TrEMBL record, chain A:
<keyword id="KW-0812">Transmembrane</keyword>
<feature type="transmembrane region" description="Helical">
    <location>
        <begin position="47"/>
        <end position="67"/>
    </location>
</feature>
<feature type="transmembrane region" description="Helical">
    <location>
        <begin position="21"/>
        <end position="41"/>
    </location>
</feature>
<feature type="domain" description="YdbS-like PH">
    <location>
        <begin position="72"/>
        <end position="148"/>
    </location>
</feature>
<dbReference type="InterPro" id="IPR005182">
    <property type="entry name" value="YdbS-like_PH"/>
</dbReference>
<protein>
    <submittedName>
        <fullName>Bacterial membrane flanked domain</fullName>
    </submittedName>
</protein>
<keyword id="KW-1133">Transmembrane helix</keyword>
<keyword id="KW-0472">Membrane</keyword>
<dbReference type="Pfam" id="PF03703">
    <property type="entry name" value="bPH_2"/>
</dbReference>
């Protein structure tokens, strides 16, 4: 069995994902309320309310509680001298290997929600592909970014 | 010092730009004319409004075409190709000769009589600059040679400045340039097979259908329908012959199109570059530097396989996102048995063996299981709503399963030294040869059922143009997948090398 990468992403990342889930649930809730109002006006059958309610609750459970948790438990990364290894995925576990010599540049990015939690995401780009680590403490992200860019030497012959 | 003469493009450029705009406008013109028709409102300027608008815009295009041509200049300075152009805003583009990967030549019908070429400048194109290329629409062949000469001189200067530092070490290399060598040509018979088995036939049919549907309002459909129904009554044999004739004509068009595009297809090796020339009416010459080739793929379309043919595609770093230059048809059609000779000549380090490791029997189910998700409701619905005949939809099950098994049997992989070979099937069978140093990243994917059954999917990304091409073997042995990942991991290699160094 292949060893898992060591590092985990910030625990606050889990909270951010939960927040995303809450925001999404809010929109689902709006739609459900809309359906409820329509059902009331046009006197549709009562089980519309039931279905709408169940959908909202199930959505909230999955996207606020379960999925972020699984995702967070799964997310691991490791930056070694000559390669970066990532492991992530909800249903499908993906393990990605990016050799340092292939890395072209590293970006950190931060949206309003991430900034509130003092988090940042890192995007590692090779000549052909992009890979993201979604939530790291800002200082950690900055440190990682500069570490990767020092380790990444652009090989002359390869693209 | 260098010459700083500013060169202009040939005046035919202006004509071409006008013609190009006209060609783009022809469909809107037709649609507008047909939609409006020529109705009589009594006021002549309303009757001919569309014609007036288009006449006016044609004049505008003509004038802008000439101005654009007049404004476009290029020259050589400081080992750079410099271009200045622009209608309202003057734009300048400086391309260092070092960054130029290749000059591709195209000779269109309008180029021929004046002995002109279109030169496309291909640059390395870092991911930051989406379009660093330049295009000289029409210049004389002599002028094209001047560019090549300037480039060669600039490179020589560079080498010389290096050799002075390195005590004349590299001077010999510059002097001894091996002549170009022909690797591959296509015969007339190859062209026929290519035309017949390519998607061209389908393309023409769909093109005809789209064309007809565009003009469905204008065409006398009812009249045609009556004619056709009368025609069908007149006898099955005649209908069959007519259908056959139509197919024959379509095939003929397809052959003609392929013939024009691929006539005189040759692959040459020129020092460090692959040079591909092709075309009858429009002659094209594409240069691919050997060290930009990222992967070699043998594609076996089932129809072509029937005749023992395959084709070879290479992924090239550089060029557009999906445009020409990313994926290059190196050998458009070639006997499967004859593939190795030209490929080996181009890529001597490539091991062209068939991949031998196949997938375990327990991964079979993964190739068709997911299909049941849509299959079951579709079959249930069909059987219910179209009761007696709907039951035939059960035949989907064996079809899907055998399709899956076909894919399972096709998949294979092999690691040999620094080379990974992956074989998989979409509709055509693809065998991808990749060197380790060309693989940008590698991924191993597993879902819950995969883990339970100890299988995994491995996918390797190679650069193709601006994007990536993913070669993947699905549902392979988990242990083997991990081994491939370990093979790819640079750290392990470093450890192994370290050990060797210590031993020495």
């Amino acid at each position: 069995m292949r060893r898992q990468p060591i590092n985990r992403i910030s625990e606050k990342g889990l909270r951010v994902w939960r927040l995303y889930g809450i925001i999404q649930t809010f929109f689902v809730l709006l739609v459900a309320i809309g359906a409820g109002v329509l059902a009331y006006i046009f006197e549709w059958s009562w089980y519309i309310y039931g279905i709408a309610g169940i959908i909202v609750i199930a959505y909230a459970y999955l996207f606020v509680y379960l999925f972020p948790k699984i995702k967070w438990l799964r997310w691991r990364y490791e930056v070694r001298e000559s390669e970066i290894e990532l492991q992530h995925g909800l249903f499908i576990v993906k393990r990605t290997l990016i050799p340092m010599v292939r890395v072209q540049h590293v970006d950190t990015s931060q949206g309003p929600i991430l900034r509130k939690y003092n988090l940042a995401g890192i995007t590692i780009s090779t000549a052909a592909t992009n890979h993201e680590i979604p939530a790291l403490i800002v200082e950690e992200a900055d440190e990682l970014r500069s570490r990767i860019s020092t380790l990444a030497r652009v090989a002359d012959d390869d693209v | 010092m260098m010459s700083k003469t500013r060169y202009q493009l040939h005046w035919i450029t202006a004509v071409m730009s006008v013609l190009r705009t006209l060609r783009e406008m022809i469909v809107p013109i037709l649609i507008l004319v047909f939609a409006n028709g020529i109705n009589d409102t009594g006021k002549w300027y309303l009757d001919y409004l569309t014609f007036i608008i288009f006449g006016f815009s044609i004049i505008v295009f003509f004038v802008t075409g000439i101005i654009k041509w007049k404004r476009y200049v290029y020259w050589f300075e400081d080992d750079e190709l410099r271009i200045e152009y622009g209608l309202f805003v003057k734009k300048k583009r400086y391309i260092p000769f070092d960054r130029i990967q290749s000059l591709d030549y195209t000779e269109g019908i309008l180029h021929r009589p004046f002995n002109l070429v279109k030169v496309s400048v291909e640059t390395a194109g870092g991911s930051a600059s989406l379009k660093a290329e330049a295009e000289l629409t029409a210049i004389t062949k002599d002028a094209a040679n001047v560019i090549e000469k300037e480039m060669a001189e600039a490179k020589k200067r560079k080498v010389q400045s290096v050799t002075i530092d390195d005590e004349f070490e590299e001077e010999f290399e510059v002097a001894s340039e091996p002549p170009t060598k022909k690797i591959f040509t296509m015969s007339g018979k190859d062209l026929l097979v290519l035309a017949t088995t390519s998607g061209g036939v389908g393309l023409i049919i769909s093109g005809a259908v789209i064309f007809l549907s565009q003009f469905a309002d204008v065409l006398p459909i009812e009249w045609a329908y009556r004619e056709v129904s009368g025609f069908i009554k007149s006898g099955l044999l005649i209908v069959a012959i007519a259908v056959f004739l139509v197919l024959l004509i379509i095939w003929g068009i397809s052959v003609a199109m392929t013939f024009f595009a691929y006539y005189g297809f040759t692959v040459q090796i020129d020092y460090e570059d692959i040079v591909i020339t092709r075309g009858l009416l429009e002659k094209k010459r594409i240069t691919v530097p050997l060290n930009r080739v990222q992967s070699v793929r043998i594609v076996e379309n089932p129809f072509r396989k029937l005749f023992g043919y395959a084709n070879v595609v290479i992924d090239n770093a550089g060029g557009g996102i999906t445009g020409e230059g990313a994926k290059i048809n190196l050998l458009p059609i070639v006997k499967r048995k004859a593939i190795n000779t030209p490929l080996q000549e181009l890529f001597p380090e490539l091991i062209l063996d068939e991949p031998t490791n196949q997938l375990p029997a327990r991964s079979k189910r993964f190739y068709y299981r997911i299909e049941f998700v849509w299959m079951v409701p579709v079959i249930a619905a069909l059987s219910y709503f179209f009761f007696p005949f709907g039951l035939f939809s059960f035949l989907i099950i064996p079809a899907v399963i055998s399709w899956g098994l076909w894919h399972h049997r096709s998949a294979a992989y092999e690691i040999k030294g620094n080379q990974l070979t992956m074989r998989f099937r979409m509709f055509s069978l693809q065998t991808v040869y990749m060197m380790k140093k060309r693989i940008q990243s590698m991924e191993m994917k597993q879902n819950y059922f995969h883990r339970k059954r100890k299988v995994a999917t491995v996918s390797a990304a190679v650069k193709s143009g601006m994007g990536a091409f993913y070669a993947q073997v699905k549902h392979m042995e988990e242990e083997e997948a991990e081994q491939i990942l370990a093979w790819y991991e640079p750290a392990r290699e470093a450890v192994v090398e370290g050990v060797l160094e210590v031993e020495q």
